[in-house]
Amino acid sequence: MKRSTYSALWALALPLVLARLWWRGLREPGYRAHWGERLGFYGDLGAGWHTIWIHAVSVGETRAAEPLVDALLAAYPNSRIVMTHMTPTGRATGRALFARHGLRLVQSYLPYDTVPMVTRFMKYFTPRICILMETEVWPNLIAVCGQRGVAVALVNARLSERSLRRAGRFGTLMTEAARAISLVAAQTEDDARRVRSLGVGRVVVTGSIKFDVVVPAQAKAAGAQLRARIGDRPVLLCASTRDGEEALIVDAFARLPSRPPGMLLLIVPRHPQRFDDVARLVQSHGLTLARRSDAGPPGADVDVMLGDSMGEMFAYFAASDCAFIGGSLLPLGGQNLIEACALGRPVLIGEHTFNFAQVSDEAVAAGAARRVHDAAQMLQMAVALLADDAARAQMGERALAFANRHRGATARTLELLRGLIY
Fold it and tell me: Are residues 182 and 65 in the same domain?
């Protein structure tokens, strides 16, 4: 596909895209806010700064960007960061993480990938560099950056075989965009190999920035408060679960022949619009439910707690005894297990971790994580860990050592970026 064809398709699809945005806003009101930004129009966001632009599409990418944001603001004290997102949850996560930076970090939605909209964004903010987090490649955005002499870097980059095949279906559209990227800082050698196959000229393996995330003191405190509220009960956290997984987990939990006394299942869905659906699912299985947002501690008869809050994943890990990482029971690619490891929690993962293949395999090899075939086996393994303090402590120590061993990607990435920020 040629970029001119791609642009024409965007022009034709834009009314449908806006209609879908409005429809999604029925369940997530955040999608109906800041529409002008998505079209390249901005209010008073403070133009005129020396600006570093970071694009973090949603929650995971925003949280991954935290060490890099801190490092860039420290290295460039006269600069500010404009962080763009595609989802309201990503924007809300950024607001929670980066409020401490005040005016030195502003947020916006990424304009749709049309030349006029991206050009308006570029003229307003005049960024000195465009830093894309993890997997984002937008052909018109990259082309406009090239026309205006702005380097594009893809950092903390990951590219699965599935994503590579998908990119191949777009032919020259993606390869031309890839060749125009100035730098790719890849998480693993496998990611680097796949990125190079698209034609990127400069690809360096730096590791994952997520290993450099420092657990905030307030998150630890919130986790301790949540744990005190739960009490002395064994807690299995099912983190970032996806649609379809909760049904498998809750059904397997309800069928458990025996549980450790007082065992609490803590479920935190990845997408907040599904909180109420998951609550109804739990109750339909005859299980007693409490919510994170409820006042007071969960009663002794509560079987399941629903983590119905955003930006508290570290706190949930801190309040748990072991953690299952969602997105991996079904062929969804999994989520990142690094945060759980950083808090020294034993980790369970399903078979479908292709989005984080190498780090998941390495965690299993290090004894920090264990794979399960299905929800029933996951619950059985969790029950065994919750009943064995020594085994759980040993696995948690291995998880923490695994996380600590892989630190340093942020410093390596920052050094590479220095030559591109003018």
Answer: yes
